[in-house]
Input
Amino acid sequence: MKTIFRMKALLAAVLAFGLLFTSCKKDDDPTPTELLTEKAWKLTAQVVSPPLPTENGTLVTDLYAQYAACVKDDLATFRDNGTVLFDEGASKCVSTDPQTVTGIWAFNTTETVLSVTLDGETTSYDILTLEDKKMVVDEEFTDFDGITYTITSTYSRQ
Output
């Protein structure tokens, strides 16, 4: 009798442990493509380093603060088929511009660089953060004086 009781107790403990283990199992993490695609992204911050000189000689680090409202409402929607749709949002800076334009996007093999091609020009962005509701990317460019600038852009999922 004690043996049957011990076997039942052991079986109950194994089942309880199994249920506990499976109920705590973490879902598979989404892939970078799943995080990037299907919902729109909106620019919410953009800074440059080193500071960028303006026409009047002041130095600017916060590029986002310089943008008009018609730029701040623009959206980018990446599709899982490799296309990206850029939408002017509720307001356009130039009324004759199309509401939307389409480009293409791709990751590098390690999914750490996002390349976007629009009108035959490709720009590559180093991905610093790619989460469900936030994306942060870096882009570098060198001006005519040979100074290399890094633009860090933050996007929020819409």
In short: DSSP finds three helices and nine strands in the chain. The mean pLDDT is 87. Residues 141 and 149 are 5 Å apart (CA to CA).
